[in-house]
Design a protein that fits this description.
By secondary structure, the protein is an all-alpha fold. The protein has a domain at 2-72 and 108-262. Helices cover 65% and strands 1% of the residues. The chain is built from 15 helices and two strands. The protein has helices spanning 2-8, 10-29, 37-54, 56-71, 73-82, 89-106, 115-136, 145-153, 165-168, 175-202, 206-209, 213-232, 238-261, 268-284, 290-293; strands at 155-156, 159-160. It has a two-stranded antiparallel sheet. A hairpin with a 2-residue loop joins strand 1 and strand 2 (159-160). Helix 2 packs across helix 3, helix 5 (73-82) runs antiparallel to helix 6 and helix 10 (175-202) packs antiparallel against helix 12. The longest helix has 28 residues, at 175-202. It starts with a helix and ends in a 45-residue tail after the last helix.
Amino acid sequence: MIEFFYDLLYPIQWVVAWIMVRFHDLLTAIGLDPAGGAAWSLSIVGLVVVIRVLLIPLFVKQIKAMRGMQVIQPEMRKIQQKYKGKTDPASRQAMQQEMMALYRTSGTNPMASCLPILLQSPIFFALFHTLNGIGKGEAVGPLNAELVEQADNATIFGSQLSDIFLQSWGQDGEWSTIILTAVMIVLMSLSQFVTQKQLMAKNTSSASMEGNPFAQQQKLMLYILPIIFAVSGVNFPIGVLLYWLTTNVWSMGQQFFVIRRMPNPGSVAEKQLQERRARRAARRGQVLPATEAGTPAADHPTTAAAPVRRQRQQPKRGGSREKRRPSGSRSTQRPGNR
């Protein structure tokens, strides 16, 4: 069954091997040792960069989906309150139908937030199988037998990229692998925790947390994911741990950028962004609208509003300057005409 699964992943595995080989060629062309650990480690880092750049459109969809979920939270709470305490199948089905109708009308898809992770999973398993094959001398497409031997003999901090924590435990002279993998597992778990923590603490509004099952799941994943990384990481080769650590660091930096520049409405990050904009406007002597500054202009004594110039209103002119008098009446008479 496992072999059949990896047979399905072979096209992805071939692409993964091709990207690694292309980066390896580039790095050796600039002077790195083709059989050294630096060239092969940086090839794995390059693979992460390529994958994450390709996933940026999906990440944008993920951001829009998360914002959409926050926008429809009041309507979701109304539906939940409507069916609160009703446990019969008909009520549950009706609630689900109303929820799905709300998703359709708002254009929000809760699964969009999971797409980047789901699409990375086949790549991760393909890389795992490729690095495991390097330790067994298995070639994959562009990763021929010569390159497999180079990658197998390449070392990073005294350990081969195909070394595994559990296989090294209890063996003499393998402490470098144990220490390296332990440090990488800790860094992986810590980076995942920081990424999820800043998302929950800064980019989530308090209103969206109330009665939101997805928010409760995020809280749960905040502590479960690092534990999963710690438990499963001892079974992965160092090369896979390097890939995982690099992608976690990328996610942490990407999340930091998004939270700082494009925070969700009502979140702590949005208030901080408004304060930064108000401070910049104050230094320039400008006044921001209340929607951008976060508070009315009167609350900022340093940003006094400029006096408003009032234009003098000109009198309106009629169709003619003066009404014509009747021809028989005169306002004045000359004395000689009497």
